[in-house]
Write a structure and sequence with these properties.
By secondary structure, the protein is α+β, with helices and mostly antiparallel strands. About 30% of the residues lie in helices and about 40% in strands. The protein has a 4-stranded antiparallel β-sheet with strand order 1-2-3-4, covered by helices on one side. A hairpin with a 7-residue loop joins strand 1 and strand 2. The model has no long low-confidence stretch (mean pLDDT about 95).
């Protein structure tokens, strides 16, 4: 399986949009856990992973992970989404260190 750079950029863009939606919907908890307002959190692309189920190529998950940084660049946590083979988000994780 080959993945183009443009596809990776789209995966990161989707993850960034999902992070902003998640953080906005949980703004009080994000501020409590991170110590800063969610709009001040910077995101940095970390990794894209593909995990196949079984021996075929029909079923798989794509994990796109972002690093979360404070305004001064210090890491404060990470966010990732899992998408199925149809591109639907099936799970997401927001973790603060």
């Amino acid at each position: 399986m080959t993945i183009e750079e443009s596809q990776i950029r789209l995966l990161y863009a989707k993850a960034k949009a999902a992070f902003h939606e998640c953080a906005a919907s949980q703004a009080p908890q994000v501020r409590e856990e991170s110590g800063i307002h969610y709009e001040a959190i910077k995101v940095r692309c970390d990794s894209v992973r593909i995990c196949f189920s079984g021996v075929g190529t029909d079923a798989y998950l794509v994990e796109t992970k972002l690093n979360l940084l404070a305004e001064d660049g210090e890491p404060i946590g990470w966010y990732c989404i899992h998408e199925d083979e149809d591109g639907s988000i099936v799970d997401d994780y927001l973790v603060f260190d």
